Amino acid sequence: MQNLNEELSHSMVHYLLTIHKLKEGKGYARVTDIAKDLELTKGSVSTAINNLKKKGLVAEEEDSKFLLLTENGHDEVHRILSSRTLIFYFLRDFVGVSEVIAEKDSCQMEHLMSPETSEKFFNFMKDLACSCEEEGTLAKFSTALDLCEFKTAIDFTESQLGDKHLPEKES
């Protein structure tokens, strides 16, 4: 997949995530629905959607005005969601910032992280959270995100479903 993170603005990311959310929730996404969800005009949404179509991330279903994510668009959404999830839990559980700040900051940074950094970040967090307490290793960090259940960063990225962080498991 091409590296789009430098090419996608924060607002473009929100359009992609909104299309994904609407498709998951309603089964379809229209310009009207996106405008309502993002509290924008249909005209500004149409302009943004056309830009996303040019980038090959969004298409229209045949015989309708329903929007869908292309394979590249879907991959990009999962990459963004996994970056957001990692950043959120790192800031909240490892760094200790409030949940509100972790949510805000992860939303601002989610699309800026390269796939390489995201993979390294996943491995770093997994090592900290899942390591055995061996002599000479870093102390184990506690996080509500169970990274130990994922074998690779790709498995983690593919598990991203909604537009929020992975749900915390009940104890």
What would your notes on this structure say?
The relative contact order is 0.13. The longest helix is centred in the middle third of the chain and has 25 residues, at 71-95. The protein has a two-stranded antiparallel ribbon. The chain folds into 2 domains: 10-70, Winged helix-like DNA-binding domain superfamily/Winged helix DNA-binding domain (Arc Repressor Mutant, subunit A); 74-158, no CATH class. α1 (10-25) crosses α4 and α2 (31-38) crosses α3. Helices cover 56% and strands 4% of the residues. The protein has helices at residues 10-25, 31-38, 42-54, 71-95, 99-109, 115-130, 153-158, and strands at residues 58-60, 67-69. It has 171 residues and is mainly alpha-helical.
Strand order of the largest sheet: 1-2
Q: Structural class, judged by helices and strands?
A: mainly alpha
Counting H and I runs of at least 4 residues, what is the number of helices? Answer: 7
- Estimate the strand proportion: under 5%
Could you say which overall geometry the principal axes of the C-alpha atoms support? elongated
Largest sheet, described in full? 2 strands, antiparallel
Work out the helicity level.
55-70%
Distance between the termini: 37 Å
Domains counted in the coordinates: how many? 2
Order of helices and strands: HHHEEHHHH
The count of DSSP E runs of length 2 or more, i.e. the number of strands, is: 2
**Low-pLDDT segments, ≥5 res:** 167-171
Mean pLDDT: 84
